[in-house]
């Protein structure tokens, strides 16, 4: 089952380019799924990571024959129904080898330890989604 079949309108896949100051053009693709919250932040993060790994594995298969210098911005974010301004939960932006490596980690913490990124998970990813009991 493709991400579009599974997630419908909550799945986005589209190409874009970024022109660098030195004139180079970076070819990339946005691969995004928007999700709804689970019962609490811990379960939501586990679910977001499962969705992320699923997307990353799909990218590795779907774009295996594309040029090696193409990059992929793989994102799992809140839907607007969950958080008005949406908001990323986990995100990477790298070439296919990096996507493959990220997908190999069992947990978001393991992946963050390797990549050292503030995108895994994003700072304040749970803000305005879960209420904190006093």
Secondary-structure map:
Elements: H1 3-7, E1 11-19, E2 25-35, H2 41-62, E3 71-78, E4 88-95, H3 96-103, H4 108-115
Parallel strand pairs: 2-3
Antiparallel strand pairs: 1-2, 3-4
Q: What does this entry look like structurally?
A:
The chain has 134 residues and is an alpha+beta fold. It has one domain. Helices cover 32% and strands 27% of the residues. The chain is built from four helices and four strands. Helix 2 crosses helix 3 (96-103). It starts with a helix and ends in a 19-residue tail after the last helix.
Features:
alpha+beta, four-stranded mixed sheet, globular, 27% strand, 134 residues
The averaged pLDDT comes out at 86
Give the beta-strand count: 4
* Class inferred from helices and paired strands: alpha+beta
Number of helices: 4
Span of the ends, CA to CA: 42 Å
Order of helices and strands: HEEHEEHH
Shape estimate: globular
Radius of gyration: 15 Å
What portion of residues is helical? Answer: 25-40%
**Share of β-strand residues:** 25-35%
pLDDT < 50 stretches: none
Can you tell me the number of structural domains? 1
Largest sheet: 4 strands, mixed
| Strand arrangement in the largest pleated sheet | 1-2-3-4
In short:
The protein is α+β, with helices and mostly antiparallel strands and 134 residues long. The protein contains 4 helices and 4 strands.
């Amino acid at each position: 089952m493709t991400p579009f079949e599974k997630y419908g309108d909550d799945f986005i896949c589209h190409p874009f380019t970024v022109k660098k100051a030195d004139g180079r053009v970076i070819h990339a693709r946005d691969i995004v799924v928007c999700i709804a919250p689970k019962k609490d932040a811990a379960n939501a993060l586990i679910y977001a990571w499962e969705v992320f790994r699923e997307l990353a594995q799909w990218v590795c298969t779907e774009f295996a024959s594309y040029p090696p210098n193409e990059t992929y911005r793989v994102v799992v974010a809140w839907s607007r129904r969950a958080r008005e301004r949406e908001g990323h939960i986990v995100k990477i932006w790298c070439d296919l080898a990096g996507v493959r490596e990220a997908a190999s980690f069992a947990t978001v913490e393991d992946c963050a330890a390797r990549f050292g990124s503030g995108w895994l998970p994003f700072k304040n990813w749970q803000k305005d989604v879960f209420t904190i009991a006093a």
